[in-house]
## 1
Amino acid sequence: GAGVSQSPRYKVAKRGQDVALRCDPISGHVSLFWYQQALGQGPEFLTYFQNEAQLDKSGLPSDRFFAERPEGSVSTLKIQRTQQEDSAVYLCASSSFGVGGQGPGDTEAFFGQGTRLTVV
Amino acid sequence: AQSVTQLDSQVPVFEEAPVELRCNYSSSVSVYLFWYVQYPNQGLQLLLKYLSGSTLVESINGFEAEFNKSQTSFHLRKPSVHISDTAEYFCAVNTGGFKTIFGAGTRLFVKA
């Protein structure tokens, strides 16, 4: 597609329920990022993939959070046993890092509209 | 560790007035600096970026930002705002790795 697509746009989960959030990056983009944006805050880094390799997962807040990108395109962020503090907008971004020798830090990232997760 | 501070959470301004959205960062190494904009019900979009070279960078819609290394600032300015500039603006910093650190955002509200 033309941009980064995330689904669902909205998700309401009961506390303790598992959820899976999907990200379709821009076709051909090597890099994929997940961010968490709490209400009134800026996005906070969760994890980074380069193709199918998860190179940095230092931002995942607990072992209940798990991300994968098995074929180097679509990615899923899974949250097990959701808690109220997990309520946030989860943003996915992709970039073309890996093409032309650009590094991940200086390459424009294209963001999806996010998934708003509400845990009740 | 890097951090970004956006000093104003909300900035109301009248149409055609000038505006400045302030951003300060902390980092012990060289940085790349970004401003992203988020219009209502849309994803974050890159507005402009500083990578190296000229410290003054411009966007296609009239915004500009100046990298000031001594003051560790990257303030965003526009000489005359439009109603359509109403959005949330995020300043961000990256030191070349995988993590981009974002500020908490400034909501610009342009009044007629």
## 2
Amino acid sequence: DQQVKQNSPSLSVQEGRISILNCDYTNSMFDYFLWYKKYPAEGPTFLISISSIKDKNEDGRFTVFLNKSAKHLSLHIVPSQPGDSAVYFCAASENSGYALNFGKGTSLLVTP
Amino acid sequence: KAGVTQTPRYLIKTRGQQVTLSCSPISGHRSVSWYQQTPGQGLQFLFEYFSETQRNKGNFPGRFSGRQFSNSRSEMNVSTLELGDSALYLCASSLVVVGDGYTFGSGTRLTVV
């Protein structure tokens, strides 16, 4: 049963605009959330994380928002750049623990 | 510093055979996890090792097994290969737990024919 869902398989955004990638989860025990970026033929690369005690975390152009009541998180990329084109995975864990539950990913294409 | 190293990068095996994949974590990282990535299921957790002990295991059949050595290097083994085992197998390491943030290797692409 998929506990982390990324309902948009793909997203296309123009360079310079905002990219918003969404993620929903069903397990209320999840307390740590991460976003990974993956290029073809490479392993996923850690991008940004957020603990359930926060509702926002920023790192440069990347901001993650967490809405615990809605069991929803989103990744904002501002401004989007062509190099951001990749597959983005949302992941979650219980007790910052030993396993990550991943969504199936959203393929982002940033066009010039 | 060196990243997570997985060998081999590509493998082709026949149904019924067994296969062993290797992972060398980042120096100092004691936790090693394995994931299977397929187009239909995405990334699915296989198991996690810390100090040579399996701490957590995903929902995979017993044909999938692993181990970790005293130097933190890890191997995973799949016996009696099935066509459905064709996937990208990813290894990730972290200092102690997931909250430290995983670093993934580039993966081993296994094709079962």
## 3
Amino acid sequence: AQKVTQAQTEISVVEKEDVTLDCVYETRDTTYYLFWYKQPPSGELVFLIRRNSFDEQNEISGRYSWNFQKSTSSFNFTITASQVVDSAVYFCALSENSGGSNYKLTFGKGTLLTVNP
Amino acid sequence: KAGVTQTPRYLIKTRGQQVTLSCSPISGHRSVSWYQQTPGQGLQFLFEYFSETQRNKGNFPGRFSGRQFSNSRSEMNVSTLELGDSALYLCASSLTPTSFTGELFFGEGSRLTVL
């Protein structure tokens, strides 16, 4: 079973539309971290946000917002008024304890977002 | 501030050969992680080094190995290459091990093609 599930493989929207990328995770740990990364065509992943398991506050950063709900094990990402530059693959990731004080990061399969002009 | 630098960016090898990839982390970062990215399996964790010690290892065969030098630069090696090793290999650095923050700074990757 996947630990991080991004059910949407590809999403295509028209510029200025709002779009939500879904992420569902699975863990038995009580302490864990969730992340979103963006991978533009150039290849390098860019960190967007980190949330720890004790902080369920939603966060807004410009056109980006994140909704963390432990009850449904979801950490969804919304882009408001999308722009062409938002076109990229977006990865959700889970960091959980892999033994002792070590954590391991597991990525979802990613969602390819295409924003058309 | 220079980012994470990976070399070479592209390379082509044949089955049975071996390959070494290099990663120079952001100055001051002591943790380096390696990931393999393929269309089918997505991003998979290979290993993580912190202060020259391997802290974590993913589920890859022993043909995949790595090391970290005292200047935090890291190399990974794949021996006896197989067609399935064709992938984008991403290196990421961070100030502390992913145990604590998980915020990683990635390079642009080395794209390996095995023929």
